[in-house]
């Protein structure tokens, strides 16, 4: 007999749990796309999106997932054959690199060991050697969702400034936005991209690009961009249809409005601190379980860990056995390991977006039950450690 009947819990790192208010906002007839309420509502999205990204500059909305936004970011700032420096801490960083290469960019990679981010000093060294300023852009995932590593974007900006280097700093915030503190302008990021289905709690299908004046300037020499991917009309349309280069994604926009309402009501600072406290409780549980057996956190130091996703090593075949048990017996779906060598032995907990303390404690209690049911060696007291961390916070 399975105990999974009841509301399932999708604890994977995206798509994330959708709030009931977001779901309800989509229950409506097709709106008129030519005039009226949809137009007024769309205009309200931009200030709230920019606040969530920490920027006073430009925002563009696309009908796209994250992979499309990887392309959108490059197409608007690169000319054919440009050189890019990629700071990579996991599978998604490599994915963005592959996109750049497919577009014909010359990409150089500085890679971390996956248990922490690329050190800004390594970036500083490489920039100092680039005296002729051939590197056009430095790219990094703010959070690499495969490893759960959070990069030091402000540290990368400081390295660029110290070297007097003009390269753009570009951040993939697909996992982190609305979860980990990200302040585009204060961190000196020139281009940030994200998507709807993670911290922004909206169904997959919307992508967002934020760009400042330096990036807008780079757009002038970009020579690969096609009309659909051009961010200029999307960010400053003269006619409504230019926001989306065609028909508006009507129901996604209403969903996004509801999700942004939730963020505005809670306050972005409170959203970030909720994610920090929940993440902290998950790490406390994993550390307690890891006192015996194989379990350990993938990211060495707490300040480098994302508050949106946690990657955990358990060893093969136990990681897969545990995930299977949690899903079929308890109704909690955990994330698979991604981009690891060997590929097995890891799982991830998504704790991004519409997640609160009882959900996290439920997921952790489920994992602890699974470890016992499957006789996987582990230290005692993981859930207690998590509860104590929440009580103390
Ligand atoms: C999810 C994710 C992507 C890919 O997004 P899709 O919507 O699946 O294309 C890229 N980068 C990061 C950091 C992500 O978390």
UniProtKB/TrEMBL annotation:
<feature type="binding site">
    <location>
        <position position="348"/>
    </location>
    <ligand>
        <name>substrate</name>
    </ligand>
</feature>
<feature type="modified residue" description="N6-(pyridoxal phosphate)lysine">
    <location>
        <position position="198"/>
    </location>
</feature>
<keyword id="KW-0560">Oxidoreductase</keyword>
<dbReference type="InterPro" id="IPR015422">
    <property type="entry name" value="PyrdxlP-dep_Trfase_small"/>
</dbReference>
<keyword id="KW-0663">Pyridoxal phosphate</keyword>
<dbReference type="InterPro" id="IPR000192">
    <property type="entry name" value="Aminotrans_V_dom"/>
</dbReference>
<dbReference type="InterPro" id="IPR015421">
    <property type="entry name" value="PyrdxlP-dep_Trfase_major"/>
</dbReference>
<dbReference type="InterPro" id="IPR024169">
    <property type="entry name" value="SP_NH2Trfase/AEP_transaminase"/>
</dbReference>
<feature type="domain" description="Aminotransferase class V">
    <location>
        <begin position="58"/>
        <end position="319"/>
    </location>
</feature>
<dbReference type="GO" id="GO:0016491">
    <property type="term" value="F:oxidoreductase activity"/>
</dbReference>
<dbReference type="InterPro" id="IPR015424">
    <property type="entry name" value="PyrdxlP-dep_Trfase"/>
</dbReference>
<dbReference type="GO" id="GO:0004760">
    <property type="term" value="F:L-serine-pyruvate transaminase activity"/>
</dbReference>
<comment type="similarity">
    <text>Belongs to the class-V pyridoxal-phosphate-dependent aminotransferase family.</text>
</comment>
<dbReference type="GO" id="GO:0019265">
    <property type="term" value="P:glycine biosynthetic process, by transamination of glyoxylate"/>
</dbReference>
<keyword id="KW-0670">Pyruvate</keyword>
<dbReference type="Pfam" id="PF00266">
    <property type="entry name" value="Aminotran_5"/>
</dbReference>
<dbReference type="GO" id="GO:0008453">
    <property type="term" value="F:alanine-glyoxylate transaminase activity"/>
</dbReference>
<dbReference type="InterPro" id="IPR020578">
    <property type="entry name" value="Aminotrans_V_PyrdxlP_BS"/>
</dbReference>
<protein>
    <submittedName>
        <fullName>Alanine-glyoxylate transaminase/serine-glyoxylate transaminase/serine-pyruvate transaminase</fullName>
        <ecNumber>1.12.-.-</ecNumber>
    </submittedName>
</protein>
């Amino acid at each position: 007999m399975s105990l999974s009947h009841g509301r399932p819990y999708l604890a994977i790192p995206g798509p994330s749990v959708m709030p009931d208010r977001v779901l309800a906002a989509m229950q409506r007839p097709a709106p008129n796309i030519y005039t009226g309420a949809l137009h007024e509502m769309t205009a309200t999205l931009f200030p709230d999106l920019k606040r969530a990204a920490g920027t006073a500059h430009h925002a563009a909305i696309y009908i796209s997932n994250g992979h499309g936004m990887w392309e959108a970011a490059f197409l608007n700032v690169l000319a054919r054959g440009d050189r890019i420096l990629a700071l990579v801490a996991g599978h998604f960083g490599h994915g963005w690199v592959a996109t750049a290469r497919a577009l014909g960019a010359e990409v150089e990679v500085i890679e971390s060991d996956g248990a922490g981010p690329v050190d800004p000093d390594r970036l500083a060294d490489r920039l100092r050697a680039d005296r002729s300023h051939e590197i056009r852009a430095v790219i990094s995932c703010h959070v690499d969702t495969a490893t759960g590593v959070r990069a030091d974007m402000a540290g990368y900006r400081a390295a660029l400034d110290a070297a007097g280097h003009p390269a753009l700093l570009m951040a993939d915030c697909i996992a982190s936005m609305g979860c980990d503190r990200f302040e585009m302008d204060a961190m000196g990021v020139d281009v940030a991209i994200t998507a709807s289905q993670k911290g922004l709690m909206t169904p997959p299908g919307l992508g967002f690009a934020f760009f400042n004046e330096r990036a807008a300037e780079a757009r002038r020499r970009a020579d690969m961009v096609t009309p659909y991917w051009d961010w200029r009309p999307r960010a400053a349309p003269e006619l409504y249809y230019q926001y989306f280069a065609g028909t508006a994604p009507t129901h996604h926009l209403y969903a996004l409005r509801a999700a942004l309402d939730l963020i505005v009501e809670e306050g972005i600072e409170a959203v970030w601190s909720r994610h920090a406290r929940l993440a902290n409780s998950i790490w406390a549980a994993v550390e307690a379980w890891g006192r015996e057996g194989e379990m350990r956190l993938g990211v060495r130091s707490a300040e480098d860990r994302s508050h949106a996703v946690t990657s955990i090593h358990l060893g093969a075949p136990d990681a897969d056995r545990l995930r299977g048990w949690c899903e079929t017996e308890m109704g909690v779906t955990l994330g698979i390991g991604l981009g690891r060598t060997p590929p097995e032995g890891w799982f991830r907990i998504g704790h991004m977006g519409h997640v609160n303390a009882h959900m996290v404690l439920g997921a952790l209690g489920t994992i602890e039950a699974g470890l016992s049911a499957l006789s996987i060696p582990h230290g005692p007291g993981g859930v207690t450690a998590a509860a104590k961390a929440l009580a103390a916070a």
